[in-house]
Amino acid sequence: MRIIAGSLKGRKFTPPKGLPTRPTTDFAKEGLFNILESNWDLSEVKYLDLFGGSGNLSYEMYSRACRNITIVDNFDGCIRFIENTAEKFGIDCIKPVKADVFRFINSCKEQFDLIFAGPPYPLSNLAEIPDKILSNNLLKKEGWFILEHSPEHNFENHPNFFHHRNYSKTNFSIFRMEQKEAT
């Protein structure tokens, strides 16, 4: 795995075998960051990475100037890998949190500009994540929530859905606090 742009462009990291991760491909990651950088000044963003896994997207956020990053994952090995990789890359603004993502969502009192969740695709309650994020007020008024999911899910009828991108088997649905206007 590698960081594709920014101050850490080209830096590689290799999660140990056995980590329960599903790396976002460079192709999908590049597409997602094209959208983000077209709409956000990432140096001003407070970012939350749920189901952080290897930390792949958070390192990319840091490399593109984001300096307020929280990563949540429930697996000890992922948290240790993220801490070690952040130290190796000289990143001092990533806050790893070992917690069940759903408990974190229910107890978190902070708000974020961008929230990304890359849950395991077969997660039985994956479709509930947007409502949990929005109902617990984790997203700032103008913020975006980005959910990575398989093609089997479709959120286009969700009242807070506003954008979808498909990169082969990787799909990103983007939600915002403001609801669609009734037609």
Short key terms for the protein model shown above:
single chain, 183 residues
Architecture overview:
The structure is a single chain. This protein is an alpha/beta fold and about 180 residues long. The protein is about 25% helix and about 25% strand. It is built from five helices and seven strands. The protein has a seven-stranded mixed β-sheet with strand order 3-2-1-4-5-7-6, sandwiched between helices. Strand 1 (about 45-50), helix 2 (about 55-65) and strand 2 form a beta-alpha-beta unit.
Mean pLDDT, nearest integer?
93
Largest sheet: 7 strands, mixed
**Which structural class best describes the helix and strand composition?**
alpha/beta
Please state the overall shape, judged from the principal axes of the Cα atoms. Answer: globular
Order of helices and strands: HEHEHEHEHEEE
As laid out across the biggest beta sheet, the strand order is: 3-2-1-4-5-7-6
Residue runs with pLDDT of under 50 for 5 or more positions: none
| Number of helical segments with 4 or more residues | 5
Structure summary, number of beta strands: 7
Our estimate of the beta-strand percent is: 25-35%
Radius of gyration: 15 Å
Report, as a whole number of angstroms, the end-to-end distance.
44 Å
Helix content: 25-40%
